[in-house]
Amino acid sequence: MELSEAAQTLAREFNLSLRQAYRYLEEAAQLGQPVEITEATVPITLKLPPTTVRLLRAYARRNGLMIGTVVTRALDAVLGVPKRHG
Predict the structure, then answer these.
(1) Mean per-residue pLDDT for 36-63?
(2) From its phi and psi, is residue 33 left (phi > 0), alpha (psi between -120 and 50) or beta?
(3) Residue 75 neighbours by CB under 8 Å, 6+ apart
């Protein structure tokens, strides 16, 4: 897709100015890697052993991630969910 067409589509779909759409596309072009596409999330309650919770929180903190992100990635790996990139 041409840059101008992408900017127009982005502006239309997300109610942005054409100028802002071009800015977003410029930023995206400089990322150098595909961006993971995320789905909407649904809150759930889990009961985990305290040791697992401590390890989970420490891992998330150490890697600058949200706990939900760590859990999602772990479950995706166990369930064999393919990564989705834009």
Answers:
(1) 93
(2) beta
(3) 81
